[in-house]
Specification:
Order of helices and strands: HHHH
Strand content: under 5%
Distance between the termini: 19 Å
Radius of gyration: 12 Å
Number of helices: 4
Helix content: 55-70%
Length: 70
């Protein structure tokens, strides 16, 4: 379960680097380990209307490759 949580936190951080850099700056989150999954859920819920829910192949590849390269 811990591994899954870490994976999801890294996925959230990777997404935020590209799509929500203001959140990272405001919260001083400079790495995936800086925020817990519950923190990310709060952010996503508060911004749900601004989040693009469509993912293309390139975005998905980038997300999953980011996990492999770390």
């Amino acid at each position: 379960m811990v591994d899954l949580q870490k994976y999801l936190e890294r996925a959230c951080y990777t997404y935020a680097c590209d799509h929500m850099p203001d959140v990272l700056e405001e919260r001083c989150w400079d790495c995936a380990e800086a925020a817990q999954l519950s923190d990310w859920m709060e952010e996503f819920l508060s911004r749900h209307s601004n989040i693009d829910t469509e993912a293309n192949d390139e975005e998905l590849k980038k997300l999953f490759q980011s996990r492999l390269s770390r």
